[in-house]
Structure formats: C-alpha cells, structure tokens
Amino acid sequence: EKGGHRHFMMKEIAEQPTVVGQVLDAYVSPDAHGIMMDLEGIDFAGIDRLSIVACGTAYYAGLVAKYWFEHYARLPVDIDVASEFRYREPPFAPRTLGIFVSQSGETADTLAALRFSEGKAARTLALVNVPESSIAREADVALPIHAGPEIAVASTKAFTCQLTTFAVLVVKAAHARGEIDDAGMVEMLTDLRHLPGLMSHALASDELIRAAAEEVAEARDVLFLGRGQMFPLALEGALKLKEISYLHAEGYPSGELKHGPIALVDKATPTVVLAPHDGLFDKTVSNMQEVMARGGRVLLVADARAKDQAGSGVWKHITMPDAPEFLQPILYAVPAQLLAYHAAVAKGTDVDQPRNLAKSVTVE
Ligand code: M6R
Reaction(s) catalyzed by this protein (predicted)? Predict the structure, then answer.
C-alpha cells in the first residue's frame, strides 16, 4: 500500500510527477493549445477581484496563486486564512470571485468561510481533492485537483496539484482578460507540460537532500527564506519541517530578514534559501551574505546559474533543474518536502501521523 516506501509521505512525494501529469491531462489539451476546464459560466473578463481563503498548506498554495494572478492576469487578489476571514466580516467588492482551497473539502473554517461568502461573492469556486466533500458540494463550481487519496498528515502531492490546477486557471484568466494572446497561452501551457519531467529531475536530488537533512535535524531552529513567488514556498518548507520533525522553523520573505529574524542567526541555525535565478536573485545574494557574515550556515536550493552567482561561503547546495519562472514554485516544493521528510526520519518521529495533528480539521 505504500508502494515500497517506508511511509505514505514518501510515497506521495514520489508520486508527484504522475499526479501532476494527471492534472495536466485533465485540464490541458494534449497539444497544449487549449484549456479544458469547465467553470460553468465563470468568466474572468467579468471578474474584478479574487478572494482566496484556505488553511495551512492549502493557504500557501493560494498565496502562490496570488502572485501569479496579479502578475500574469493583472487581477487583484485578497487572501486570508479561513479562521481569520469570516469573523472579520470583510466587505466584498463587486464582481469578486471567492476561491476556497481544501484538500479534504471538510476543513471547518474553510467551509464556514465559503458559507459566509455565499450571496456576497459574485460566484464561489472550490479547489478540492475530494469531489464528494462538503466544500465541493456547496461551492457554485468545484474543480478537482486530481491528486488521488492523500494519507500522510503532512500535505505534499495535494499542494503541487493545487498549484498546478491554479496555474492552469491563471493561464485561463490571463487569456480571458487579454493579458496574453493565443501564442502566449500556448507557451505557458507548453511550459506546464514539462512539469512532470522537471519534478522527476528534482526527485533525483533525494540522496543529497537526505545528507543535508541529517545535519539540519541537529539544529533547534531553522529559517526558510524566499522572495516573490518563492516566499510562500519558504512558509510551506517551514510548516512541513515543524509538522513532522518538531524542529522550530520559520519562513520569511528574504527582504524581511533584517527586520527581525536575523537576530536568530548563529552557527547553530541553518538558513534554507529557496532561490532560483530570477530577476530578484541579486537581492537574495545580499540577504545570504548577511546570514553568512554572522556565521550562519546557508543551504541554497537553486538552479546552476544561481549557484554560480552565489559565490563561495554557501554551506550546502541543492541544485534544481532550470525551469521557466512560472513553474518554479511547484518544482521547489519537492526539495522542501524531502528536506522535512528526511529530517523527520533522522529524528525518528512518526512521520505519517505526527503528534497533535489530524489529517482533516473538522472543528474550529
Ligand atoms: O484539507 P485541507 O486542505 O482544508 O487542510 C488544510 C490544512 O489543515 C492542511 O493543509 C495542514 O496544514 C496540513 N497538515 C499541512 O501539511
């Protein structure tokens, strides 16, 4: 049942090229020329704002989607953790589409946020893994994320399938709003078609990551940094690590480092930097130098170009394949998950059933 793996979590991490491929088969035509996604009349050209609501890892998927929707579709996005949403009684701008993200489709706060939004949002859309769940049934439109059953408490393949589903939705929105033309759409969909292969390539770093994780597991605190669309990955990497290894971990946008968290940096505190070579990479290099100047150990997860530019002084490198910028948050989920997994195994925790946590949080 674990497909030869010791834990469901590792099975689910390893399955990602396959399940992400399933998402693409469901939503992108084989020639990458068209999107097959029935939104039951939701037209992004008639939407002025998105309100994304979710908890935990699903929230971080929504946070990546915010960067994407704003950048590619020029669509403003509000995002909330579900437990903060309805009690605040947020006002809805006209023509707001509410998007609710939940693997289980049963998370109490997300369901309550959906119910609160009914009649206030123009339409409600759910991204769910369980098609017969409450959230899927109650939303105006439900989009399955096609991850298949996720057993481990720590969410892995649901996250990358949520992101892949969002990615297709972003392309659809960008096209409907005239931000990209047909050729631009085909280009983005073709990029997406490369994801399963890139993820397999990322999985091949497993041994290197395991070696790094065994050292990280000796620490008490771990910092994760990312900029722009990689910032939510820093949050996700920290959440994954704390959930299953019980190490204290915090994710920050790289630029926030000197506004507080740098006080934590010393020789004993590893800093994991998730930083593909992108337009913001120079700024990230200077953030890493600030960490290294204080004796901090930097674990750089980056492509070869970023690795070259980072120079000496980096404690460990995990090299990721080159990938189109759009896909990087999905790809970099893999090393973040593997790092948490191997740190937990090194610590001997109950990886699939970590203490104090439930797979589905059906009470407030
Ligand atoms: O089923 P949901 O996606 O609504 O669950 C949301 C969170 O409870 C969930 O992502 C949680 O944070 C995971 N344990 C993260 O690994």
Answer: D-fructose 6-phosphate + L-glutamine = D-glucosamine 6-phosphate + L-glutamate
Segment 6-61, tens digit of pLDDT: 999 999 999 999 999 999 999 999 999 999 999 999 999 999 999 999 999 999 99
Are the beta carbons of 74 and 66 closer than 8 angstroms?
no
Residues lining ligand 1, Cβ inside 6 A: 55-58, 102-104, 107, 110, 153-155, 243, 357, 360-361
Q: How far is CA 257 from CA 223, 229, 236, 288, 299, in A?
A: 10, 17, 17, 10, 16
- Phi, psi (deg, nearest 5) at residue 265: -75, 125
Interatomic CA distance for residues 22 and 18, integer angstroms? 6
What ipTM was estimated for this complex? 0.99
Active site residue 359: yes
Tokens of residue 62, six digits: 């929504």
The answer to whether 322 and 225 are in contact (CB under 8 A) is: no
pTM score above 0.95: yes
